[in-house]
From TrEMBL:
Pfam families: Pyridoxal_deC. Its cofactor is pyridoxal 5'-phosphate. It comes from the Eukaryota. This is G4059 protein. It comes from Coccomyxa viridis. Residues 1-26 are annotated as: Disordered. Belongs to the group II decarboxylase family. Gene3D superfamilies: Aspartate Aminotransferase, domain 1, dopa decarboxylase, N-terminal domain, Type I PLP-dependent aspartate aminotransferase-like (Major domain). Keywords: Decarboxylase, Lyase, Pyridoxal phosphate.
Length: 514
C-alpha cells in the first residue's frame, strides 16, 4: 500500500478546499480528508460569529418583512449541488446576496406579527454546543447527560413556573416519580403526543372497536394543531365548540358540558380535552379549573396549551390565570416563543408518563431503562433527539429568575402602552382586553376593510410587521410584543407609523365612497 502523501495527511491547507480534490488515483482505503479541517473551522466559525454579531447590531434597520416574490430563489442558485468542494467564503457570499433578501427578520425589534420566536445569546451558546456535540439522546445510555440534564432543567423550569408538584420528575428524595418534563419540538407535536396518550389511556379498558366513538374537545379559538392531531391520529370526532365573545373568547364550561352530554347520549366516548391559556388569535384564557373538573368527571385527558403565555406563570400577578393546573394531565409552554430560547424548545410536563409510554414505546417492558433515569424516546414520536436542554441550561443560568421576571414584565408593560395608545386615539377601538403583551384592535367600523388595508400598509413600509386575525367575523389587527430586542422607542415609532398610515387609509376609503 502506498504511503499517504503529506498532502493527504494535512487536515487543511487553509483555504478550506482539499488539495486532493480531483485526484482520481487515490485508493479509497486511504485516510479520508475533509474539505474543512479543524483549523479552517476554528477561523471560519469565529468569522461567522462576527457576522452574527454585526447582524444583531443592524437587524433593527432592515425591512422586517421580506418582500421577495414566491420562486425568487431557485433562478439564483445552480440546479445541482457542486461536484467539487467550494470554499466557505463562496457559501457565505451567497448567504449575503441571495438568502438575506428572502428573510423576514423575526429578531427585529420591530417584529410584532404572530408570536415572537425569541433568541438569546446564552441560548445560542447552548445551541451551538448541542450542534457541535451532536449526541443522540433517545436512550439514557445514548448519552446519559443529555437525558438527565433535560429532566433536571425541566424540573427547574416547572418550579420557576410555579407548576404543581405533581408535574415534577423528582420527589423530595431525588427519586423519579411517575411524571415530569420533556422537551418536544413544537406545541403542535405536544398536542398530538398528549392526544395519543389520552387515546392509550381511554382504550386500555375498552374493546378496540370503541375507537370509532372517541371524541376530542376544545374551543374554536384553540390552536389548529388540535384538528391536525385528530387528522393524524385518526380521531373520528373533533368538537371545536364556539368560544363566547362575551367571555372574551373563552370556552364556556356550560357549552362544553352540553356538548359532552349530547355525545354521551349518542353513545360516544369523550376522551380528550384541550384548554388554552393564551389563544393564538387574541390570548383568550379558558377557565382552567372548571374545565379540569369536567375532564375529571368524565375521565378525559386534560391538556393545557399555554404555548405563548405559559411562561408568565412565573409572575405572581399572573397566577389567577393558572388556577387548577393540578387538574391537568399535561401542560405545555414554548420556551422558543417568549422565553429567550431559540427554536425548537417546547416544554411539556405530564403527571403520569405511563399512558405516553403505552402509546409511544415499542420497547418490551423487560428492556426498559431501570433505575433513576428516563428513556425519552418513549415520550415522543421520533426516535432521534437533539441535546436541546443545553439551550435552557445556559439561558436559565445566565438570566436567572429575577431577570426573566423583569423581562416578561417589561413586555407586558409595553403591551399596556400599546393598549393606552389605542385607547387614546378616537379612530381606533380595542377589540378584546389586552393580555400577555398582545393587543387586538381595529379601525372603527367603516367598510370593515380599513384595518386590513392599514396592516398591509404598515407591513409594506418595512418598518414594522404585524398580522390580522378574525374575531366574530371582523378583521382585527394583532400587535404582539415579546421580541427580545424590543424597547419602548420601537413601540412609539411603530404607533406613529400606524397613526400616519391610518390617516391615509381613512382618507382613501372616504374618497372611494360614492
Ligand atoms: C404558537 C401556538 C401553538 C403552536 O406552536 P408550535 O410550537 O409552533 O407548534 C399552539 N398553541 C398556541 C396557543 C400557540 O400560540
Amino acid at each position: 500500500m502506498p504511503e499517504p502523501s503529506t498532502e493527504t495527511r494535512a487536515v487543511s491547507n487553509g483555504t478550506g478546499v482539499s488539495s486532493n480534490a480531483g485526484n482520481g488515483q487515490r485508493n479509497a482505503l486511504n485516510d479520508f480528508v475533509h474539505p474543512m479541517g479543524v483549523e479552517a473551522y476554528r477561523k471560519t466559525a469565529k468569522d461567522l460569529i462576527d457576522w452574527i454579531c454585526d447582524y444583531y447590531a443592524r437587524v433593527e434597520s432592515l425591512p422586517v418583512r421580506s418582500e421577495a416574490e414566491p420562486g425568487y430563489l431557485p433562478p439564483m442558485l445552480p440546479t445541482e449541488a457542486p461536484d467539487a468542494p467550494e470554499s466557505a467564503d463562496a457559501v457565505l457570499s451567497d448567504i449575503q446576496s441571495k438568502i438575506m433578501p428572502g428573510l423576514t427578520h423575526w429578531q427585529s425589534p420591530n417584529f410584532f406579527a404572530y408570536f415572537p420566536a425569541n433568541s438569546s445569546f446564552p441560548a445560542m451558546l447552548g445551541d451551538m454546543l448541542s450542534g457541535a456535540l451532536s449526541v443522540m439522546g433517545f436512550l439514557w445510555s445514548g448519552s446519559p447527560a443529555a437525558t438527565e440534564l433535560e429532566t433536571v432543567v425541566l424540573d427547574w423550569l416547572a418550579k420557576l413556573l410555579n407548576l404543581p408538584a405533581c408535574f415534577l420528575a423528582f420527589g423530595p428524595d431525588m427519586k423519579l416519580g411517575k411524571g415530569g418534563g420533556i422537551i418536544q419540538g413544537t406545541a403542535s407535536e405536544t398536542v398530538l403526543v398528549a392526544l395519543l396518550a389520552a387515546q392509550a389511556r381511554a382504550m386500555a379498558s375498552r374493546p378496540a372497536e370503541d375507537r370509532q366513538y372517541l371524541v376530542c374537545y376544545s374551543s374554536d379559538q384553540a390552536h389548529s394543531s388540535i384538528k391536525k392531531a385528530c387528522m393524524v391520529a385518526g380521531t373520528p370526532h373533533c368538537r371545536l365548540i364556539p368560544a363566547r365573545p362575551e367571555l372574551d373568547y373563552a370556552l364556556d364550561p356550560d357549552d362544553l358540558t352540553a356538548a359532552i352530554d349530547a355525545d354521551l347520549a349518542a353513545g360516544l366516548i369523550p376522551f380528550y380535552l384541550v384548554g388554552t391559556i393564551g389563544t393564538t388569535s387574541s390570548c383568550a384564557v379558558d377557565p382552567i379549573a372548571k374545565l379540569g373538573a369536567i375532564a375529571r368527571r368524565h375521565d378525559m385527558w386534560f391538556h393545557i396549551d399555554a404555548a405563548f403565555a405559559g411562561v408568565t406563570a412565573m409572575l405572581p400577578e399572573m397566577q389567577h390565570y393558572f388556577q387548577g393546573l393540578e387538574l391537568a394531565d399535561s401542560f405545555n409552554t414554548n420556551a422558543h416563543k417568549w422565553l429567550l430560547t431559540n427554536f425548537d424548545c417546547s416544554c411539556m410536563w405530564v403527571q403520569d408518563a405511563d399512558p405516553l409510554k403505552a402509546a409511544l414505546s415499542l420497547t418490551p417492558a423487560f428492556l426498559r431503562a431501570k433505575g433513576n433515569a428516563y428513556d425519552y424516546k418513549d415520550w415522543q414520536i421520533p426516535l432521534g433527539r437533539r441535546f436541546r436542554s443545553l439551550k435552557l441550561f445556559f439561558m436559565l443560568r445566565m438570566y436567572g429568575k429575577q431577570k426573566l421576571q423583569e423581562y416578561l414584565r417589561h413586555h407586558i408593560a409595553l403591551g399596556d402602552l400599546v393598549a393606552d395608545l389605542v385607547r387614546h386615539d378616537s379612530r381606533f377601538e380595542i377589540v378584546t382586553p389586552p393580555r400577555f403583551a398582545l393587543t387586538c384592535f381595529c379601525l372603527k367600523a367603516q367598510t370593515g376593510k380599513e384595518t386590513a388595508a392599514l396592516v398591509d400598509a404598515v407591513n409594506r413600509s418595512g418598518k414594522a410587521f404585524m398580522i390580522t386575525t378574525e374575531l366574530s367575523g371582523r378583521c382585527v389587527a394583532r400587535f404582539a410584543i415579546g421580541g427580545a430586542q424590543t424597547q419602548e422607542r420601537h413601540i412609539r415609532a411603530a404607533w406613529q407609523l400606524i397613526s400616519q398610515l391610518a390617516d391615509k387609509v381613512l382618507a382613501e376609503t372616504e374618497g372611494a365612497r360614492p
